[in-house]
Amino acid sequence: MNLKLIVILFLCCIKSYSQEKDLNYFLGKAQTNSPLITDIKNQIHSASLDSLLFRATRKPQVSGNLLANYAPIIDDFGYDTALSNHHTVSGMVGVNQRILGANQINSQAETFKLIKDALVLNKKIAVKDLNKSIIAQYISTSASGEQIVYNQEIEKLLKQETLILKKLTQNSVYKQTDYLTFSATVQQQELVLLQLKQQYQNDLALLNYLSGETDTVSVSLKKPEITLKSIQNSDQIVFMKQFEIDSLKLQNQNKLIDNAYKPSLSLLGDAGYWSSFAYLPYKNIGFSLGLGLSIPIYDGHQRSLQHQKNETALATNLAYKSNFNRQYQQQLLMLNQKLRQQAEIGNQLQSQLVIAEALIEANKKLLPTGDAQITEFVIALGNLINIKNAISQNNINKLQIINEINYWSFNE
Questions:
Q1: CB 216 within 8 A of CB 202
Q2: Could you give the CA distance from residue 213 to residue 19 in angstroms, rounded to a whole number?
Q3: pTM metric for this prediction
Q4: Fewer CB within 10 Å, N- or C-terminus of the chain?
Q5: What are 238's strand-pairing partners?
Q6: In whole angstroms, what is the distance from residue 295 CA to residue 12 CA?
Q7: Is 211 helix (H, G, I), strand (E, B) or coil?
């Protein structure tokens, strides 16, 4: 029974450590677990409710009112009955319908639309920011995993050559110091590999942290498939849309200001029972209709001053937009320049890698015959490791630059 349990646990461990996750998994988890995105989603829903509330205020407002009043006269002291009616009872249903023009309705509806558009835009930017950080960390973590793989290959090579060198040392082909020098190189590589594994664990933990996950199981990551997206017109990117929405808000605010100075018309009505019991109280059932009109006349030129404030805000918004566009174009130029530089470095490193690998192969062939110089072999191995690490770092830099370019120039 115990043996079966051990086998089951062993298989479970193998399964857990053989899991492989891709970038989309972490992007999905991060968006699901993000409180900021949840908050913005709820704000969007709340803005939709505000629009429905405005529509509700445009409908007739009906209210029921019940009032009973008694003003006694004691020893000729009391309210004037001509004013108080001595005692009254009323029970009425009132209706109030405000009359709004089409321009007023459209301007108010545009206000709610712009609020919702701004929130939708904020959500897109929040998702982009989150995706950028997740992709950047995924690149670093995946690169750590790749470094482990090729450093394991180098460690395997070193151990194979160590066995050969040990036999040759025993046969006095090489000196004991040569063997010890090579063994020290093997131990150094084992330390490097241990550090890389620890670095991978830490990078993976940070990736889970950014994704809002508490998973501590070690997993392997698929190679990130990150390609350069087609650059859109700068006027169409989400960052420029913010300036457009701000401008539309100010223009719509000017309409709201003008609408506030238009005459306001309301229809009033009620029906029910209202009686002072002075004469035929059973006949005091009736209704009334009314019309309310409000016309603004003078307010100290507040309307003009409010328009001036909005024009100033529009000019400020335009200045920020122009400055952002200049910096945006310059930033893309710098990022593309860095990308070309990384490509040039990559080509140089590949050329160096061919020579380094050829040198290693040559030393491997010379080692059994005793013609290889161990110090030169160790230097060649160190050079190979350095070149491969440089290639890995160059690939990381290239992918990080592509991630940065996609962040600024692509809306998804």
A1: no
A2: 16
A3: 0.82
A4: N
A5: none
A6: 79
A7: coil
**Sheet of 285-294, strands arranged across:** 61-70, 87-99, 264-275, 285-294
- The Cα 192–Cα 150 span in angstroms is 12
Task: State how far the Cα of 224 lies from the Cα of 399, in Å rounded to an integer.
Answer: 9
Cα angle 125-128-133, degrees, rounded to a multiple of 5 = 130
Helix (H) or strand (E) holding 265: strand 264-275
Which two structure tokens, joined as six digits, stand for 84?
A: 């108080």
Torsions phi, psi for 269 (to 5 deg): -165, 150
Residue 245 in tokens: 């929405």
Average pLDDT of the residues in 351-361: 91
pLDDT digits (tens, 9 = 90+) for 368-392: 888 888 888 888 888 998 999 999 9
Token couple for 128: 């982009």
Angle at 120 (CA atoms; ends 118, 125), nearest 5 degrees: 90
pLDDT in tens, 163-220: 888 888 888 888 898 888 888 988 998 999 999 999 999 999 999 999 988 877 778 8
Q: How many CB atoms lie within 10 A of CB 1?
A: 5
Backbone φ and ψ for 145, nearest 5 degrees, come out as -65, -40
Residues 40-60, mean pLDDT to the nearest whole number:
86
